[in-house]
Amino acid sequence: SLTVLQALEDGLKRADADPSVKAVIVCGENGKFSAGADIQGFSSPKSRGGALGPIVSLIERSEKPVVAAIEGIALGGGLEITLGCHYRIAHVKAQLGLPEVTIGLLPGAEGTQRLPRLIGVPAALDIITTGRHIPATEALKLGLVDEIVEENTVEAAIHLAKKV
């Protein structure tokens, strides 16, 4: 939603401007990272701001480490947010993917550019064109996530952030 995007942008800008902040953890709520955009919102008039692409670029440009703590699902725009992060930790039961292609939409926040850079063209093409959900264990093998955990992903992300 526009509210979530604005909060994410505001939080990142505050963190970057605050010298006491050493790293940023991006996580979801209620055991889910993000299912991406609500496609119902695609038919509404565009509001000023709120585009996901520039926010993902803001994450990527952060001088402070940004770690995604992925629980549940990171699909569509949710996965694109993680691709802007410098590190990604996923719960062992997490699922990642770009399912919007199954309804004829292309990922719109540069996921089609960032994913091949991260995991290579053949693996990225499979994910981009099929829309299948990638289990965390496969995501680790592909290099899509840096680590998988069976416990609290936010705590693991904090630990990693302190390490880097």
UniProtKB/TrEMBL annotation:
InterPro entries: ClpP/crotonase-like_dom_sf, Enoyl-CoA_hyd/isom_CS, Enoyl-CoA_hydra/iso
Residue intervals passing through the bilayer: none
One function term, GO molecular function aspect: (3S)-3-hydroxyacyl-CoA dehydrogenase (NAD+) activity
Keywords attached to this entry: Isomerase, Lyase, Multifunctional enzyme
Entry superkingdom: Eukaryota
Entry GO terms, CC: peroxisome
GO BP terms in the entry: fatty acid beta-oxidation
Catalyzed chemical reaction(s): (3Z)-hexenoyl-CoA = (2E)-hexenoyl-CoA; a 4-saturated-(3S)-3-hydroxyacyl-CoA = a (3E)-enoyl-CoA + H2O; a (3E)-enoyl-CoA = a 4-saturated (2E)-enoyl-CoA; (2E)-hexadecenedioyl-CoA + H2O = (3S)-hydroxyhexadecanedioyl-CoA
Matching PANTHER family: 3-HYDROXYACYL-COA DEHYROGENASE, PEROXISOMAL BIFUNCTIONAL ENZYME
Record family assignment: In the C-terminal section; belongs to the 3-hydroxyacyl-CoA dehydrogenase family.
Protein name as catalogued: Peroxisomal bifunctional enzyme
